Every structure is written in structure tokens, then in C-alpha cells.
Amino acid sequence: MKLKKIELGDKEVWPFTIPSGIIMTEPRCAAKLLNEIPWLGIWTTKSYTREPRKGNRESILTQYEPGSFGNAVGLANPGAEQGREQIKQADIPDDRFVLGSSAGSCEKEFVFIIETLDDVVDGHELNFSCPHAEGHGSAIGTDPNLVYDITRAVCQKTKKPVFAKLTPNTSNLEEIARASVRAGARGIVAINTVGPGYYSHHGHAILTNKVGGMSGRAIMPIGLKCVREIMQAVGKEIPIIGMGGIRTARDIEEYSEAGADVFGIGSALAGMADRDILIYLNNLVIDLGNRTNYAGQLLKKVDMAYKGVRIQKVGSYGDFKVFKTDTSINAKPGQFVFAAIPAGGSLQEKPFSVMDDDPFTLGVLSRGEFTRAFNQLQEGDEFYFRGPYGREVYMGAEENKVLVAGGCGIAGINLIAKRASALRHSAKVLLGFKTSSEIPDLTQLQKWAEGEVYVATEDGSYTGKNSVRGRVTNLFSIANLNPNSQFFNCGPREMVDAVERIELENGDKRRIYSSLDYITSCGVGLCGKCADEKGRRTCVEGPFMRAD
Q: In this structure, is the dihedral angle defined by the CA atoms of residues 55, 58, 61 and 62, taken in order, positive or negative?
């Protein structure tokens, strides 16, 4: 199969995209990937609604068999108006086709979204296919009359090409496809997730929505069937963006034979950092040119299975609790896990740094509904976890380490101190707290750092060795730090920004690594929520990110 560019609107682009709602959900992340990966000719945005939607609480993603997932994000998005501003500010290359995705509950809402996005996109995708957002998606997309009316109304408001994204969860797909084209659609996207399906662990629904759409390898036969039916219904002149389970060059060839002109690759990218995606797509293109099929060997194996552990000891330090369990795990410094407990008929989860690997230990600060419930657990109670995820921190050859943490950030640097000790690297630990009652037992940390632990409390209530009244930044002047040290920072943004400024005054930014509390909802790089200011997905690129 000879790969060639396709004409969409007034642009010619390479025929690859990542489906809406996967990876490039944040425009900054999209800009980074599009500037680094030439093969991604189309950026399909997340589906925007008229008003902001919070979406569903975690868990929002599960892997029910290798390479096959269930999800129920709930159309989380900032709303069309804020979405427009984010797209406008993103540095999207001029030679890419921006396909703005819209999700409304009625004709009026779709028209509003299209008019709002029209000047910052090259075309529009109408989401008639989300299977788990009440009143949206397939609730509309299974009625050919509604699809016709909405598509016609939208096409009258824009001169840019409109693509109807159709659901596989219908018995009249061909009729719906013909209705959208009669109404003015100049392309079809097929398919969205299949289902919804139900997934459970020990009798508890994994997704907080209880049910979710199925994606990945298992749905490829359905995707191929739907693309073939659509092509037969609307003809070869209407471009079709085909997706559903694509992993290899042979999969792309099968979709092309079925009638697809553009290929969406989504779930296959689970666990991949940006460079991994680039290498994978490069190899897909090579495979297509050589009629080989090797790129699939580059796919990552991600573990989303839950394991149960029992709590052996609980340490309480104000709103911060430390949970030591009855097991050990193979976690590297800097990695994190998702901890889960049953609530409301499902498993709810949040990510936490691995404070120690042996015994497996978590530090949890009460901040919201989940953490307050988790901190009610007592010795002998059980919880579930999945992971670990994230990259192991690069410890480097520098023998001097400086570990800086504010409050519950101590959980993120604890295992780094343990590894530094094992490497016989000297480590100085700088800790900041509001008051002494929040300080956990520092005995083990003192041992790993050979006594070089410095503590600041805002009220001055801690008066132990190497202590000051103030913030963690006040410790830099008394700790006699080597400017050639490797720095690791973990804590609130305000704290990290403040300490990085000090570290950068004399140090090399290539030796400064910081972990911030970005929203992380999947842990395997698919949801894209954890993108930082530079567009890096911190769950697969970090969570400790180098300052440069």
C-alpha cells in the first residue's frame, strides 16, 4: 500500500489522526505532538459541548483484555468558548488539518458549538456516537432524521467540511450515513467505541459510570464491517476516517480495502511517550511501503489489573496519613500507583506516589471526597491498587542529591532518598510544613540521608536539629548545598516554582527535576489530562520532569 497525502478542505495532509478524546485532548499536548510527528496530518480535538462538563470521576478507563479497553470519560471538556481560546493559542503547524469535534444534545447546541469554533478549525466533526453520555452521542446518532436535521443545520452555518462521526451501535448504519451526506456532510468518521459494556473487579464495577464504551483490538472486526457498509452506502467519493483497533500496517491495509481514506490510531498508543509514538508511526509508514508488518512489536504492554493489599500500620499526622501494607511491590523511584476503594457501587481511584516499595507504602493527604474516605481506612482493612506507572527518575552520576518537598510531597521524594542511599550517593533532604503536627516519622528518611534532613515549619513549632521557622526556601541558606547537585522537587506549584528559582541561580537546569500535582486520570497516557504547560503528558513522560 502506497501511503499518500489526502485532500481535505484546502489542505493536503498525511492520512493519520488520533481519535477525539485520546492523548491530544489538551491543545498544548496536540501542538507538541503535531510539531514533532509529521505523519499526524489531522488533529481531531476533544468533543466540545456548549457548556463545560466535568465528566465522570475516576475510574474512567479499564483494560479488559490486552490491547482492549473500556472507557467512560463523560465528555469532559471546558466548553466550546474556552475550547476555542485554547485552540487559538496553541502552536498548531499550518500544514495540519484541525478537525474540531462537537457534541450537542440538540440542533441548537450543535450550531452554537460550530459557530464558536469555526474560525479556529479547518473542519468539523459531529459526535453522533458517544455511547455513555446521556442525551449526547448515540442518543442522537441512531435516528437518521435527527442526524439529517442537525447536519443540515450545521452545514448551513459553515463553509468548512463537516464530518459525521457515526455509531456502530445501530442496525441502520447505512441509512444514517446516507442521511448525513444528503444533509451536506463531506465526510464520515467511523467508528466510535462499541457498547456500552460492563466491567467489574471482585463484584465492583470498575468504571464509576458503571458502563463504558469498548475500544481497542477487540472491536476491529466491527470497525471494518461498519466502514465497508458506509462506503457501500455513500460511495467512494466521500472520504471516510476509519478507526477501531488499528495496531499494524496490515490493519491499515484492511481498513483501506474496506473503504477508509484516513486512519485513526488510539488505544494502541497506550503507555507510549511522545518519542515512542513517533518511532511507532515511522515504522508503520516503513511497513506500508515495504509490505512488512513489524511496527506492532513496538506496542507497549500496560498493566491495569487491580491487586488487593492489606494495611498493616497507619501513621496519622494531621490531615496526612501514611499507610504501610503487608506486601512489597516492584516500584522505581518517582513512580506512582492508583489506589482504589469501593464506593457507590463501583471502584473509585486516585493516583499516589509510591512512598516506599518494601513494604508498599502510601502517603495520603485528605483533600477531597476520595482522600477523606481513604483516610478512614484502618489497620487490617484492604484496598486495591494498580500500577506502578510513570518513568523511574534519572538518578545520574552526580553523587550529591538534594530532595525538596512541601507537605505531602514528602511521599514523592522518599523512595528517591532510599535509592540514593543504595547507590551510596549523599543526599540532603529539605522539607517544609505548616506545623510540626503534620510531620511524619522521619526516622527512616534520616537514616537514608545520614542525618542531612532539614525541616522548616511556618509557625516555628518544630525545633529539632537543622530546623528553621519559615518556608522550605529558607532552608537553602543553611543546608550548604553543592550547586552541582542533582535536585528533585515535589510539592505544590507555588513551592516548586519558588525552589526552582533558587536552584537555577547557580545550578544547571538539566539537573533539576520537579513533580507537580497534575490531574492524572488513566496513568497510561491515553486520557491526556495530565499535560503540563509544555504539552508533556506527565504520566508517561514523568511525573518528575526536567526543568529544561
A: negative
User: How would you write 33-93 as a 3-class SS string?
Assistant: HHHHCCCEEEEEEEEECCCCECCCCCCCEEEEECCEEEECCCCCECCHHHHHHHHHHCCCC
- The structure's pTM equals 0.95
Q: Which of 426, 413, 444 is nearest to 481 (CA)?
A: 426
Q: Is 166 exposed, middle or buried (0-12, 13-18, 19+ CB in 10 A)?
A: buried
Q: Return the SS3 of 431.
A: strand
| pLDDT tens per residue across span 443-472 | 999 999 999 999 999 999 999 899 999 999
Catalytic residues: 130
Give residue for cell 460511495: 235
Please name the helix (run of DSSP H) or strand (run of DSSP E) that holds residue 206, with its range, or none: none
Q: Identify whether the C-beta of residue 533 lies closer than 8 Å to the C-beta of residue 518.
A: no
Strand partners, 68: 65, 216
202-223 per-position pLDDT tens digit: 899 999 999 999 999 999 999 9
Based on its alpha-carbon atoms, the radius of gyration of the chain, rounded to whole angstroms, reads: 25
Residues belonging to the chain: 548
pLDDT digit string, tens, across residues 378-395:
999 999 999 999 999 999
CA–CA dist 152, 263 (Å, integer) = 26
Domains of the chain: 6-298 (3.20.20.70), 307-389 (2.40.30.10), 400-517 (3.40.50.80)
Q: Cβ neighbours of residue 113 under 8 Å, at least 6 residues apart?
A: 48, 49, 50, 80, 102, 103, 104
Sign, CA dihedral 397-399-405-409, equals positive
